[in-house]
Amino acid sequence: MRADHRARWRPELATAPEIRHRRRLGAALALPAALTLLVLVIGPSLAVLGLSVTDYRLGMPGANWVGAANYAALATDAGLRGSLANTFAFVAVVAPLAVFGGLWVAILVAGAGRARGLAQTVFFLPVTATLVAMATAWEVLLHPSFGMANALLGVLGLPAQRFLSDPNLALWTLAVLAVWKLLGYNVLLFLAGLATIDRTLYEAAALDGAEAGWRRFTLVTWPMLAPVTLFVTVITLIRTFGEFELVVVLTNGGPDGATEMVLFTLYQEAFRYFDIGRASALAAVFLVFVMALSLTQIWIAERRR
Amino acid sequence: MAFILVAAATLAPFVVMIATSLAGPAQIYEGGILPSPDLNAAVDNYRAALTEVPLLRYMANGAFVCAVILVLQVTIAAPAGYALAKLPFRGRPLMLAGVVLALMIPMQVPAIPLFLGVASLGLLNTYTSLIAPFVISAFALFLFRQFFLSYPDEVLDAARLDGFGELSIVWRLMVPAAWPAVAAFATISVINHWNDLYWPLVVITDTDMMTPPLGLVAFRATAESSGDVGALMAGGVIVTAPLVVAFLFLQRSLMRGLSASARA
């Protein structure tokens, strides 16, 4: 966020009572937002940090200070450790595919000429579609006996798979679906970024012999898109780390914990087992991860300026 | 070629959902790439989706919740955005810092204490519980602030010289000027809250109070046991259709809204 130079106060245009009046009006207009922000977002987030060092359970009287025990459990408890490990593996696969896939698709869509409008529509459809509905559609598509995916594998002479119930496969199936879900939004962001690149840069590159393809990409597109790529990477990492719906709709963490991930585990601990302390510790870890990413992005973007 | 394959894979679940919703159990369980459509089965599927579960009730709940959330978000955030951009009140830098902080906080973090609060107030399974946590949007505050920052000060000063009071500037200049920002924000807000599963899953167990995604999760559980895949897909089509159709018609403004969210 930049210094709001355009909102700078110009006292020469106002008398003292007028200034006081504007200050009061400003405070009055901002007050409902400030209060709700405090009560509904910032306050509860601080409360989570407080709850994470207690053994509070819903329905139990009182809570005891347990120090870092809930955080230690993240490292020692097999279930929690598995959930964190799954999440990192999932992020490591999904994020690069969603970012570079989005860039690749955006460049092709931008150069699609008359088909551009149609191509855009196709890739944006998943952005507005209700994910729960689409997840059940994927479940039918991936059904072991009558799904389209296995029918296609059969055509290619490959053996049928149990995409969502094979413990070695389920997490990677969800990863593919997550890429499907994220791709459209990333394409949109990259297309917006591509539209801002100055045409004359491409002309200059063409004079230097980089007329098309890889050289043109490395010489102009990639460096000019850097801020967009940074933003897309950060938001993709955050959204991938916070995957919840695919797990809860399609696998419920199974088979045998193979698709348990941080937000799903957090949800289970908090709202199924009512272990508020432990869930709060997970929420705190999630918060630190998201904030670290966002701050890194702000830091890099500011330094570039 | 690879591009065509990726496009086909992107469309595949939509095609499967529609094709399956138009087919009977015999055609579905037969396997093959896509089940062949059957008019009678299609009618049965859509009738079952609308009668076996209160799908229309879910949609009405979803529409009501989205509308109230949007109205409250704009009512609270737009005036504050104007104040943050144009009226230097005391505490403004602090509030701006709070907005930036709140932008970085994912909903699932405050959700735990919010759930404890909602539960202790006896508000589980109410519209209030579905709406209250979202009446403030840090993103809306940021968006409206940016929008008003780009509004020229000269116009405001000219209005003041013409004898406009500060309040009538808000009413007669700022409210009409803010509509493009409201439209951009509305697309994001409605997409997010129509499709949200996490929070309804936390506070709603009563069938009458469910929103479309939660209702579909419940429907899926029953359809799974009865094996009525066609009806489940018909439900999916009905729930997904409003936003997808709106998207096809309003593609341009939707994309503007989504890329506005990116700039923030």
What features would you describe in this structure?
The complex is a heterodimer of chains A (305) and B (264). In chain A, helix 3 runs parallel beside helix 7. With 305 residues, chain A is mostly helical. Chain A has 2 domains: 9-51, no CATH class; 69-304, Orthogonal Bundle (MetI-like fold). Chain A has helices spanning 16-51, 69-76, 78-110, 116-128, 131-141, 148-155, 170-195, 199-207, 213-241, 245-251, 262-271, 276-304. The longest helix of chain A has 36 residues, at 16-51. Chain B has one domain (2-263): MetI-like (MetI-like fold, Orthogonal Bundle), CATH 1.10.3720.10. The longest helix of chain B has 32 residues, at 55-86. The model of chain B has no long low-confidence stretch (mean pLDDT 89). In chain B, helix 1 (2-21) packs across helix 14 and helix 13 runs antiparallel to helix 14 (229-249). The chains are: A mainly alpha (305), B mainly alpha (264). Chains A and B meet through helix 1, helix 3, helix 4, helix 5 and helix 6 of A and helix 1, helix 4, helix 5, helix 6 and helix 8 of B.
Give a topology summary:
The complex is a heterodimer of chains A (305) and B (264).
Chain A: H1 16-51, H2 69-76, H3 78-110, H4 116-128, H5 131-141, H6 148-155, H7 170-195, H8 199-207, H9 213-241, H10 245-251, H11 262-271, H12 276-304
Helix pairs in contact in A: 1-12, 2-3, 2-12, 3-7, 3-9, 4-7, 5-10, 7-9, 7-10, 9-12, 11-12
Chain B: H1 2-21, H2 25-29, H3 39-51, H4 55-86, H5 92-103, H6 108-120, H7 127-131, H8 138-149, H9 153-161, H10 166-177, H11 179-195, H12 198-203, H13 212-226, H14 229-249, H15 251-263
Helix pairs in contact in B: 1-14, 3-14, 4-8, 4-11, 4-13, 5-8, 11-15, 13-14
